[in-house]
Design goal:
The chain is an alpha/beta fold. The chain has 19 helices and 19 strands. Among the domains are: 121-298, 3-Layer(aba) Sandwich (Rossmann fold); 320-378 and 389-507, 3-Layer(aba) Sandwich (Rossmann fold); 512-524 and 534-590, GMP Synthetase, Chain A, domain 3, CATH 3.30.300.20. It has helices at residues 2-14, 16-25, 50-53, 66-80, 83-87, 91-94, 132-140, 188-200, 218-230, 250-256, 275-298, 332-340, 387-401, 411-417, 423-434, 455-472, 492-506, 512-524, 562-576; strands at residues 41-43, 63-65, 121-125, 160-166, 169-175, 205-211, 237-241, 265-266, 320-326, 358-364, 367-373, 404-410, 438-444, 481-483, 536-544, 549-555, 584-590, 614-616, 621-623. The strands form five sheets. A six-stranded mixed sheet has the order 4-5-3-6-7-8, with helices on both faces. A six-stranded mixed sheet has the order 10-11-9-12-13-14, with helices on both faces. Strand 6, helix 9 (218-230) and strand 7 form a beta-alpha-beta unit. One of its GO terms (molecular function) is GTP binding.
């Protein structure tokens, strides 16, 4: 009896370390080495616990921090002397639960799970007409940037930003204007070069493109010198574009070595040639940057490590798409810079500076907003060819993709023309209504109407413009009108407030019970010409939002007229505060139930209470 008791006690002591290991495996002190690894860690196999590491279903190699193992074995040695403490196996691990381990990120990094705000930034650079926009479209997998062969002119003038998707790599990519160093600072090219230098200071990597068909151009050497001067911390990756039709690239590659940025890569942005090689060069550079960036963030006590990975988007916080449209030179780009509070896009007195539809992301009161600055060409004519024609088409696409349209008017033009909106501006507003978008009208350049001589004109504009806009666009009632000065930054918060309020109304939903109670009240106050011909709406419900769409179920042959639909639409906007938002009402006819046939004696439609079963035979139907 005593020998069996001694064997049981010794076996229990030998198995203590195994139980301690399994209990601690369920705590938050340990992480899988493929995801998050604690520093100064080692395997159990180094301590001679290889059998424990391979025991049971725990076949993955887990690592323990050195200080935790030391403290853990100290606790084990103390508890082994007392048999009662061995029974309470959770005690050794509870003392470590309050300590938050320091997480360390290591390669490989899954870029698809990294938040977009933490991704590295790569700028595409080079002299004009070497294929920068074509490579940008290839990386983002969409045709967003304008691509046109103009050797004597710049197509791209602003900085475009997007998320590149190169296999499993994700990074922010910037499409810049062509760099020409020998230009004066006051010209358009000088301003674009200065703006590129400002954005380059916040960039981590750069891709320098040269045209392989033209060889190493003298302007390429100037761009290389410009890069060393303005961004000495960046070593660009040299790529030789348009190499799909060139047989031997050795001569051009040897010339490209003269830039001093390393071995060039042969690619074709048009066909996708060489994208694998570009991926192999970019991945180690981006991984090193992300490992350092994530570890720096995790080293801060106030930033949890779980926030580094992107979560699912909440429907209540969906990004707002805002398109700024209007005629040329009304201040659209100036308004975008005022909203961002930085010189993000090119501005100037020249009309038609913006060619690309520039899309910029920023945050306003906890909501992500995408601003789209469109080109000023609104009506396509036969004279508009090349980049101008492409800009018009891109502006129309941006209008269709947006949630809210901000139509910018010029206060000086209103005074000269003595009308609030020209024909082209009315076309834009009506198209926005037809597409079901929210509409906000912004009257810019109100700073030009200062002074005593313009005080009366200032008051007349503020009073007459909302009334005239409502007359010209009767499809939407309650269109918000904001008077601002984008050059001075006045009215910025008022614009965003009206835009967000319009977006909330555009996404609003009304319950069916509330709508039907409203319907009974509104139908009683409507004056019908003929009470007998009054349509009977049995049911009224909202089927979708963005924009609000309703369905009226009408019984009988009489349907709602256009005047009745306009009355219901106006009543909805007034009673539920849906101004500035298009409302759609669809009517559906509810068929009447077929009348039951009456039998002889008037008792044919009465039920006798018993169930009649019908059985089929090969000759006739027999009632049982």
């Amino acid at each position: 009896m005593s020998q069996s008791l001694i064997r049981a006690i010794s076996a229990r002591k030998n198995q203590f370390s195994l139980g301690f290991y399994y209990r601690c495996m369920n705590t938050r002190l340990f992480h899988h080495q493929d995801q998050i690894i604690s520093p100064n860690c080692f395997n159990f196999s180094s301590l001679g616990f290889s059998s424990i590491a391979r025991h049971g279903s725990h076949q993955n190699s887990y690592r323990f921090c050195g200080n935790l193992i030391t403290n853990g074995f100290a606790s084990v040695s103390n508890l082994s002397s007392d048999e009662s403490n061995v029974d309470n196996g959770d005690a050794p691990c509870e003392k470590f639960l309050d300590k938050k381990p320091k997480v360390v990120y290591k390669k490989p990094i899954d870029f698809t799970k990294i938040d977009a705000n933490l991704l590295p930034t790569v700028m595409i650079m080079g002299r004009p007409n070497v294929g920068k926009s074509a490579l940008y479209n290839r990386l983002i997998r969409r045709r967003e940037a304008l691509v046109y062969n103009t050797p004597d002119d710049h197509v791209t003038r602003d900085i475009r930003e997007g998320i590149a998707k190169l296999a499993d790599l994700r990074f922010n990519v910037l499409d810049s204007a062509g760099i020409e160093t020998e230009v004066s600072s006051g010209t358009i090219l000088g301003r674009t070069t200065a703006m590129t230098a400002n954005v380059l200071a916040r960039t981590q990597f750069a891709v320098l493109i040269i045209d392989v068909r033209a060889g190493l151009h003298p302007l390429d050497l100037e761009v290389g010198k410009w890069l060393r001067k303005h961004a000495p911390q960046i070593k660009p990756i040299v790529v030789m574009n348009k190499s799909e039709s060139i047989g031997s690239l050795d001569e051009v590659a040897s010339e490209a070595l003269g830039l001093g940025f390393g071995e060039p890569i042969a690619i074709s942005a048009e066909t996708g040639l060489g994208m694998t090689t570009l991926y192999e060069v970019l991945r180690p550079l981006l991984e090193d940057y992300m490992v350092e960036r994530l570890n720096d963030i995790c080293s801060q006590d106030d930033v949890p490590s779980d926030e580094n990975l992107s979560d699912e988007t909440d429907e209540s916080k969906l990004p707002l798409q805002l398109a700024i449209v209007g005629k040329p030179n009304v201040g659209k780009s100036t308004l975008l810079n005022a909203l961002l509070e930085e010189e993000r896009v090119l501005v100037g007195p020249e009309a038609g500076l913006t060619r690309d539809a520039v899309r910029v992301q920023f945050e306003f009161q906890g909501r992500i907003v995408y601003l789209v600055d469109t080109a000023g060409w609104l009506e396509r004519t036969e004279r508009d060819k090349g980049p101008a024609s492409l800009s018009i088409m891109q502006s129309r696409k941006s209008l269709m993709r947006a949630h809210v349209i901000a139509l910018v008017l010029d206060a000086e033009e209103i005074i000269k023309a003595r009308c609030s909106m020209t024909h082209s501006e009315v076309v834009i507003a009506r198209r926005a209504v037809e597409e079901g978008r929210g509409l906000v009208v912004i009257v810019n350049k109100m700073d030009r109407l200062r002074g005593k001589e313009n005080s009366e004109m200032y008051k007349k504009i503020r009073e007459a413009v909302p009334i005239e806009i409502q007359t010209v666009i009767p499809q939407i009632t309650g269109i918000p009108v904001v008077f601002i000065s984008a050059l001075e930054g006045r009215g910025r918060m008022e614009v965003m407030k009206e835009v967000t309020d319009t977006y909330k109304r555009w996404c609003s939903r009304l319950s069916t019970g509330r709508l039907n109670r409203w319907l009974r009240k509104v139908m009683s106050r409507h004056s019908w010409k003929d009470t007998a011909a009054q349509p009977k709406i049995k049911f009224f419900t909202q089927v979708k939002a963005r924009p609000p769409t309703f369905v009226a179920f009408v019984s009988g042959k009489t349907q709602l007229l256009e005047s009745d639909i306009r009355f219901l639409t106006r009543s909805l906007k007034e009673d539920f505060d849906l101004g500035g938002t298009p409302i759609r009402i669809i009517q559906r006819v509810v068929p009447r139930a077929p009348s039951s046939s009456t039998g002889g004696g008037g008792n044919g439609n009465r039920s006798s209470g018993r169930v009649v079963q019908r059985t089929s035979s090969d000759k006739r139907t027999v009632s049982a």
